[in-house]
Specification:
It is a single chain. This protein is of the alpha/beta class. The chain folds into two domains: 127 residues; 208 residues, Rossmann fold. 65% of the residues lie in helices and 7% in strands. The protein contains 14 helices and five strands. Strands 2-3-1-4-5 form a five-stranded parallel beta sheet, with helices on both faces. Helix 2 crosses helix 5 and helix 8 runs parallel beside helix 10. It is elongated. The structure holds cytidine-5'-diphosphate. The site of cytidine-5'-diphosphate has 16 residues, from helix 7, helix 9 and helix 13.
Length: 348
């Protein structure tokens, strides 16, 4: 019997305990789940938090239900609990109740193990950042919210390299089309993402309206995101740090970024700005078309299953609807400096 033997070993450990699989199995299981939690948090904080929340909710609900069932037996049917001299049906229900309790304790332990792994990953990330004088700034937000302009200004101010990650997805879409493939075809899109040449990102065509829409189609493909993740993380690992802007920088690409900013603005204001930009570049498009493109992309980006656009839990929110580029930059600098001094502002 593994349970009693485990408890016996806990109360009086002896030489046999340390080589017994019955004693070691629960520790091995917790270590395994914790390692899973560690890896999951390092890979994608947002998904890790979702899984942990569900695991905790499920295991505590099961625990409460099985405790209630055990309580019912103890109060209303103590005979079944203390003797075997009751009907086979009552015995079977009692056995199922006890098994349910055992399983729910196992699930709770698993959920706690997962949380433990996540907590360790968080501490390790923090220590890694404290050891090196680097600054990684994650700027996320919806289409045309002003995050690109902001990222460039912030990067210039702190003399950091800057990556507009949207360009990667735009370039993948461009290459899929150039090879005659379909944007929604995972094989063509993944091949383009794997073969992407960063030297081709400086391409004026990537800034046009069609490129943004096409980018949001390839961006829904998990393997495309995985192929681009390595490049983005390597960019963020530069000696002094970096500024990256996109949709999932604070949640997936750099979950341990020193500062995360989530930039928003009303859809109408974003469309007005983007329309002016297109007009200045001589693109033939109307305000209404730009607005509907922005709305379509917002919906696609925030509803996809993998790395949806969402603010990181510890992001500073910046609404730029009533701010020009300089005012947004000043507000961001204040937020960054406040974070660096240890004050944790949530909104600016
Ligand atoms: O400049 P704008 O905000 O209009 O778009 P962008 O940042 O160039 O991104 C173009 C498209 O790429 C977005 O609509 C997203 O679908 C996708 N994208 C993404 O999924 N993840 C990122 N980190 C960046 C962009």
């Amino acid at each position: 019997m593994s349970g009693p033997y485990f408890l016996e070993c806990l109360s009086g450990p002896n030489g046999d305990c340390f080589s017994s699989p019955f004693f070691l199995a629960p520790f091995a299981l917790v270590a395994l789940v914790a390692a899973g939690g560690y890896a999951a948090r390092r890979a994608d904080v947002a998904s890790f938090r979702r899984v942990r929340r569900r695991a905790l909710r499920f295991s505590t609900s099961l625990l409460i239900l099985s405790l209630a069932a055990v309580g019912y037996f103890l109060i209303f049917d103590p005979q079944t609990v203390s003797t075997t001299d009751t009907s086979p049906h009552a015995q079977a229900v009692w056995a199922a109740t006890v098994s349910g309790l055992g399983a729910s304790v196992g699930f709770v332990a698993g959920a706690l193990g997962l949380s433990l792994g996540g907590w360790i990953a968080k501490q390790v990330g923090r220590r890694e950042r404290m050891n090196v004088q680097r600054l990684v700034i994650a700027i996320d937000g919806p289409a045309a919210s002003g995050k690109g302009t902001l990222a460039k200004k912030v990067a210039l101010h702190y003399a950091l390299p800057c990556l507009d990650t949207g360009l990667l997805y735009r370039a993948v879409a461009r290459d899929v089309i150039a090879s005659g493939g379909e944007l929604s075809d995972p094989i063509a899109a993944v091949a383009a993402a794997q073969a992407l040449n960063a030297a081709t990102l400086d391409d004026g065509r990537l800034r046009g309206p069609a490129a943004g829409d096409a980018a949001s189609i390839v961006a829904r493909i998990p393997e495309v995101r995985a192929a681009l993740l390595k490049y983005q993380r390597a960019f963020a690992r530069q000696p002094n740090g970096a500024v990256l802007d996109g949709r999932d920088i604070g949640t997936v690409v750099c979950p341990d970024a020193d500062i995360k900013i989530f930039v928003t603005a009303s859809a109408e204001e974003r469309a007005r700005r983007r329309h002016l930009e297109y007009q200045a570049r001589g693109e033939a498009t109307t305000y209404e078309d730009v607005l509907s493109d922005i709305r379509r992309r917002d919906a696609r980006d925030s509803s996809r299953d993998i790395s949806p656009m969402e603010p990181a839990r510890d992001a500073v929110h910046l609404d730029t609807t009533a701010l020009d580029a300089d005012a947004a930059f000043q507000a961001t600098l204040e937020a960054i400096e406040a974070r660096r001094r240890g004050r944790c502002g949530k909104n600016v």
